[in-house]
TrEMBL record, chain A:
Organism expressing this protein natively: Plastoroseomonas arctica
Name of protein: L-cysteine S-thiosulfotransferase subunit SoxA
InterPro entries: Cyt_c-like_dom, Cyt_c-like_dom_sf, SoxA
Gene Ontology cellular component list: cytochrome complex; periplasmic space
Cofactor binding notes: Binds 2 heme groups per subunit.
Domain Cytochrome c, chain residue ranges per copy: 145-237
GO biological processes: sulfur oxidation
Annotated localization: Periplasm
Pfam families: SoxA-TsdA_cyt-c
TrEMBL record, chain B:
InterPro entries, A to Z: Cyt_c-like_dom, Cyt_c-like_dom_sf, Thiosulf_SoxX
Protein known as: Sulfur oxidation c-type cytochrome SoxX
Gene: soxX
Annotated signal peptide: 1-18
Source organism: Plastoroseomonas arctica
Domain Cytochrome c per the UniProt entry, residue ranges: 30-134
Length: 249, 138
């Protein structure tokens, strides 16, 4: 495991070795919002997530807690190791996908759509249990093709502006694109509260924003391409601390 | 307006090190005032997302690219036209978008497919303004 991490670090471009969360580039007031749970607007969703966690739903009358007991004991570290391999589908699955799957298939409750308040709330509540823990992608060889696909999608130019993720987030991170400082694109804080959204949003919503920004056709929510990009970004951010639920400008 | 594909053919025919495109894209001379407005419009020109320049009224100019100040002293109209239309002919790794190219793009948003970022007359207007930028930034 340690050797694997070392190898990975050696493969990363020089810039990525001084990895930093975009938290560090935020205005002090925005940092303060994130630091203090009493002011972090994302905590409203977390509270809703906590209620959903312990509330029975579906014909069988199960809550998440019926199977997983208290999230504080069963969920630490879970969000830090997604996307994971889903045996049932024979494909990688992200945390929101797993929560939606448990809800529909195990609870038999009405499905939660991508970006719905309920799915964001549960993702934020489960994610919070990993706050401060290092991102730790599973050492599962079945995920390797998705990581490779994610790396390729990250390096591929797209859209009318013909830009790749890497051109902004590797080559120009720290510089200013208009009024925004370009971050290194670490997925440490999702789902997070973005001031511009005035609400909570997932990593996929963020990726969609970057894709429409270069005037490309985004992938549909839940698409395997987004899960591949997430698998790559999580590997690239391995060891960095989880911040969920973060705040961003 | 001449056809975009003819122009692309023209571009391809240029020797690799060609530095400029002397032929204007339209018969109407560029309007520098319009060009300035396009450059400062972040939804149209997008220029100030990456470049800074002598636009004191514009806050939050980017720093991903050289300043536009003095561009007209460094380059003539033909060279500026080429850089705007397809700067990747000069530097394939450039992040500067090709403002007058529709080929070789990937996953362009459906509503924009087959459309260039700027129209031919816009390019001429921007070039007409850029040639007036003769002073380097202080």
């Amino acid at each position: 495991m340690k050797r694997c991490l070392l190898m990975l670090l050696c493969c990363l471009p020089a810039a990525a070795q001084q990895r930093r969360s975009s938290f560090e580039d935020m205005a002090r007031e925005t940092q303060a919002l994130q630091r203090d749970d009493a002011t972090n607007p994302a905590m409203l969703w977390v509270q809703e997530g906590e209620a959903l966690w312990s509330g029975a739903a579906g014909a069988a009358g199960f809550s998440c807690a019926s199977c997983h007991s208290a999230a504080e004991t069963s969920m630490p570290g879970v969000a830090a190791r997604y996307p994971a391999w889903d045996d049932a589908r024979g494909a990688p699955i992200d945390l929101a996908g797993r929560i939606a799957q448990c809800r529909a298939e195990r609870q038999g409750a009405p499905p939660l759509d991508r970006e719905s308040p309920g799915l964001l709330a549960l993702s934020a509540y489960v994610g919070l249990q990993s706050r401060g823990l290092p991102i730790a992608p599973p050492d599962d060889p079945r995920l390797a093709p998705a990581v490779a696909e994610g790396a390729a999608l990250y390096a591929e130019r797209r859209g009318q502006l013909d830009l790749s993720c890497a051109q902004c987030h590797d080559d120009n991170a720290g510089r200013r694109l208009g009024s925004s400082t370009i971050p290194q694109a670490h997925p440490t804080g999702y789902p997070l509260y973005r001031l511009e959204w005035q609400g909570l949003g997932s990593l996929q919503r963020r990726l969609r924003g970057c894709m429409t920004g270069v005037r490309a056709e985004p992938f549909r929510y839940g698409a395997p391409e987004y899960i591949a990009i997430e698998a790559f970004l999580m590997r690239r951010a391995a060891g960095m601390a989880m911040e969920t639920p973060a705040v961003r400008p | 307006m001449r056809s975009a594909s003819l122009l692309v053919a023209l571009l391809l025919a240029l020797p690799a090190m060609a530095q400029g495109l002397p032929e204007p894209l339209t018969d109407m001379p560029g309007d520098a005032a319009r060009g300035r407005a396009i450059i400062t419009d972040r939804m149209r020109g997008l220029c100030l997302l990456c470049h800074a320049g002598p636009f004191p009224e514009e806050r939050f100019q980017g720093n991903l690219a050289p300043s536009l100040a003095g561009a007209g002293a460094r380059w003539d109209a033909a060279e500026l036209r080429l850089r705007l239309m397809d700067s990747r002919r000069l530097n394939p790794a450039s992040i500067m978008p090709s403002y007058y190219r529709t080929e070789g793009l990937n996953r362009v948003a459906p509503a924009l497919q087959g459309r260039t970022i700027l129209a031919a007359q816009d390019i001429e207007d921007v070039v007409a303004f850029l040639v007036t930028l003769r002073e380097e930034s202080p």
